[in-house]
Design a protein that fits this description.
This protein is of the alpha/beta class. The protein contains ten helices and nine strands. The strands form two sheets. It has a six-stranded parallel β-sheet, sandwiched between helices. Strands 7-8-9 form a three-stranded antiparallel β-sheet.
Length: about 280
């Protein structure tokens, strides 16, 4: 496996691979990799492309009271994991390499960034789209892989690529979960044993809500209330949001009559977890 922290070196390597006729696949990450990330890499490897994994904890997407300094980092552990997965190139730039001077240019996808996680994290998705845009221009991938646990991020990146006519295929990969249903997250390491057990209410309530929809429940507000009540009953978690949204454009849903996203964010102590489920509704024609 090749590895570099320098943009110029990465571009030289990518140019040589393209001259060999290779397509390029990118898996962007902030590191502290888990099985969810490794699943993205597996999907990238299946394409037969030259696979690039980036590891960069992006300061632009953290708010002033968020956990940038606390975000877990272990580059050498991550390097061993990605090498074991057959990654061709690991790109791990420093903050100085990615942002050599204060940024005055940003990429912003409006509307989609004002709801769910974006509602209470102003500037977060601007930071995400800016760094992903930079990575796309640096690596120039043909395909890029994103996990659907961050479903809003996935939609925003997909819309950015479409609106800016970037020649990149954005592929979403379903959520990877522990056997007990907890969505894999780099932040799970911060949960106490009791909090981790309580956090199982997230996936459980989402699945139960999806079942209610399949049984004919159509009120989005009733579904949201059902999940909120389950979380408050079965845990000490502090709810940030529980919302039913259109799965394609995150618009508000009142009556569930199309494919919807049920998304939530809940804090267990200082640790904020997100989860979601996409529910396809059968409609009688």
């Amino acid at each position: 496996m090749l590895r570099t922290a320098k943009i110029s070196e990465l571009r030289k390597i990518i140019k040589e691979e393209r001259q060999r006729g290779k397509t390029i696949a990118l898996v962007p990450s902030m590191g502290y990799l888990h099985r969810g990330h490794l699943t993205l890499i597996e999907k990238a490897k299946e394409t037969g492309a030259f696979v690039v994994v980036s590891i960069f904890v992006n300061p632009l997407q953290f708010g002033p009271n968020e956990d940038y300094a606390r975000y877990p980092r272990d580059l050498e552990r991550d390097a061993q994991l990605v090498e074991g997965c057959g990654v061709d190139l690991l790109f791990h730039p420093s903050v100085e390499e990615m942002y050599p001077r204060p940024m005055v240019t940003f990429v912003e996808v409006t509307q989609l960034d004002k709801v769910l996680c974006g509602a209470n994290r102003p500037g977060h998705f601007r930071g995400v789209t800016t760094v992903v845009s930079k990575l796309f221009h640096i690596v120039q991938p043909d395909i890029a892989f994103f996990g659907q646990k961050d479903y809003q991020q996935y939609l925003i990146i997909r819309r950015m690529v479409s609106d800016l006519n970037l020649p990149i295929e954005v592929r979403g990969v379903p959520i990877v979960r522990e056997k007990d249903g907890l969505a894999l997250s780099s932040r799970n390491v911060f949960l106490s044993p009791e909090q981790r057990q309580e956090a199982l209410v997230l996936s459980r309530s989402l699945n139960e809500a999806a079942e209610l929809i399949q049984q004919g429940k159509r009120s989005a507000r009733d579904i949201e209330d059902f999940i909120r009540n389950a979380i408050m009953r079965d845990s000490q978690g502090v709810i940030d949001y529980v919302e039913v949204r259109d799965a394609e454009d995150l618009s508000e849903v009142t009556e569930i009559n199309r494919q919807v996203l049920i998304a939530l964010a809940v804090k267990f102590g200082p640790t904020r977890l997100i989860d979601n489920i996409v529910v396809e509704v059968e409609t009688n024609v």
